[in-house]
Amino acid sequence: MIEESPLVRVGDGSGPRPVHLHFSEPARPFGGDDPTIEFLVRAVGRWGSVETLVRTWDGDGLDTFLSSLAEDFRGWDGARTWRSLERDLTISAEHRSGGYVHLTWGIHDRPRSEQWCFETTTVHAAGEEMRIPAAEFQTFLTTAVE
Questions:
Q1: Angle at 93 between CA 122 and CA 82, to 5 degrees
Q2: How many C-alpha atoms does 8 have within 13 Å on its Cβ side?
Q3: What's CA 70's distance to the chain center, in Å?
């Protein structure tokens, strides 16, 4: 039996330029006691794909950030932001009219060169629908292996 690597998918593929985000291969590259967690993020669309390795410090609170968006289903003013340890992944969240949360995901080249940046926005119903990625990322980050 082949064991599949944990995978989180974000994006519904609708709209004129559908994009899916795939998060995979969570690992603790420096051993089980070290808080560093790395994972691969890949944006896939009809136009092709981009990917980068994301480095976090014990997940940098990604699951907590997404959970807080679900808890505040009535909305908030302005944008809430999250970024990974080395800023290779960023998220900006805005609560918009109609009860929807717009998440703008930024995938960035390594900080030293910053040769490229890719951004896409996914739209999620506020509340329960936002709990799904929060729970998926919580499970994803806890499966990081040496």
A1: 110
A2: 20
A3: 15
